[in-house]
Amino acid sequence: xxxxxxxxxxxxxxxxxxxxxxxxxxxxxxxxxxxxxxxxxxxxxxxxxxxxxxxxxxxxxxxxxxxxxxxxxxxxxxxxxxxxxxxxxxxxxxxxxxxxxxxxxxxxxxxxxxxxxxxxxxxxxxxxxxxxxxxxxxxxxxxxxxxxxxxxxxxxxxxxxxxxxxxxxxxxxxxxxxxxxxxxxxxxxxxxxxxxxxxxxxxxxxxxxxxxxxxxxxxxxxxxxxxxxxxxxxxxxxxxxxxxxxxxxxxxxxxxxxxxxxxxxxxxxxxx
Amino acid sequence: xxxxxxxxxxxxxxxxxxxxxxxxxxxxxxxxxxxxxxxxxxxxxxxxxxxxxxxxxxxxxxxxxxxxxxxxxxxxxxxxxxxxxxxxxxxxxxxxxxxxxxxxxxxxxxxxxxxxxxxxxxxxxxxxxxxxxxxxxxxxxxxxxxxxxxxxxxxxxxxxxxxxxxxxxxxxxxxxxxxxxxxxxxxxxxxxxxxxxxxxxxxxxxxxxxxxxxxxxxxxxxxxxxxxxxxxxxxxxxxxxxxxxxxxxxxxxxxxxxxxxxxxxxxxxxxxxxxxxxxxxxxxxxxxxxxxxxxxxxxxxxxxxxxxxxx
Lengths: 272, 311
Description:
The complex is a heterodimer.
Chain A: H1 2-17, H2 20-38, H3 51-74, H4 79-84, H5 86-91, H6 97-131, H7 135-164, H8 168-196, H9 203-210, H10 214-223, H11 234-240, H12 245-269
Helix pairs in contact in A: 1-6, 2-3, 2-6, 3-7, 3-8, 3-10, 6-7, 6-12, 7-8, 7-10, 7-12, 9-11, 10-12
Chain B: E1 6-15, E2 18-28, E3 33-37, H1 44-52, E4 59-64, E5 81-84, H2 96-106, H3 111-120, H4 136-147, E6 154-158, H5 166-181, E7 185-190, E8 202-207, E9 210-215, H6 217-224, E10 228-233, H7 238-241, H8 243-246, E11 257-259, H9 264-272, E12 279-283, H10 287-310
Parallel strand pairs in B: 3-7, 3-8, 5-6, 6-7
Antiparallel strand pairs in B: 1-2, 1-4, 8-9, 10-11, 10-12
Helix pairs in contact in B: 2-3, 3-4, 6-10
């Protein structure tokens, strides 16, 4: 355990030193405060709009940003250390591969979690001062918790990439493709499936397909509680066949645990 | 007799088609310094990785401190092993002290030890600076400090003197001698040969995964049977006219007598009896020549066996 914490501590401080924490927090805070205030600008008004509109816009923003940031933060975690030779050195230490991986995960995960909490939390506080509605904190805790899980999930996925390739530049390329597939292509494919295939898939089938993408689970968690007028696309269909929040959170959690376990497995088999 | 600290029994490692290390048998005793020599790709690093337990042998047996280094039981032994990899660039954005503190903590030591080690390798003045500002020599010193964490019982150093200036090299060998006298064993991997001779007890010569020769320098010299170079001056051609001395002259160096080890003394006596002798230089074959000899022998063998296959 001490070993895991030593690694986590180092990774966390790396995140502080590289200004990752500050910049992610700032991005999240600025965007969320901006959306909170100017979300209604299109309809001609400036000021705080309804809670559901705000959360809907925040979720559709976060679903692109968080995976991208998580992948950027962690894609070189292993391949970078392999290139500089420190990975080999670390493995001669009394430190097991799973300890190293979990340590990195805790360190980098904390960066993402903290940035999400502060960045989006700030707009929750802002909203509360404007609307004075305690409902805000319930909605936002669901949003922030699912955003953290989404971030952790993509951190684990980027470890998979980082452990499977032998060059940093390749890892960067794969990270970009992964982001594109999960954040954009997957939904387009679903939509195409809905529209293109006659005798199309059932609502249940669609929801089940969405479980294959952590980004979509995140969307479902945050949008299912809202008016469907704020939601469109494939999601609106899926929401009607909604799963319970607990089921969705379990699925999201599985998207953290499974890639992480697989990453440990790959790491153990990796030749150095 | 005590059990050796490191012992390899017919140990080898193959990657798919490639035999990175054919079967090697060796023992390293406590307080012994072993020099491991060979070209790039000779299997030096593979052998080190086997001893470190980072990879498992494809065949044979590796034991360090009485245990297989890749096993779980050997876990606690790892903090007693120090390793300096050949190519390592430490976390550039961290300071030297931060890097060393991280590694010290992973071995269960504190920041204080890290500071002491930085002083020992002489980069205290730069410990608060980021590693990316370090010169090659300073990075190498940082790497050495890392290997010295916790006064290891076994040290594996891959090209430790690359990039070090002569003073730093001298300091480094001083540290090795000191560790040795404290009972640590050292495996020194190098292709830079001059200067290393007086600090090693035994040498191993590897080429393309094969052990070519192993033993003390004296033994290796005997095996190689390389001649001693004797260079007299002031004799003005009387060497060339002497029928016995004459036979030791070679075309390449007309003033130098290449004398086999067992005839050295009689030749020296004969030379000393000459009145005109002004000076005399005697050079026994150095490690580099021994190394070249074994490599040359190996290559010749490889060529003849390749011919044999063709025919």
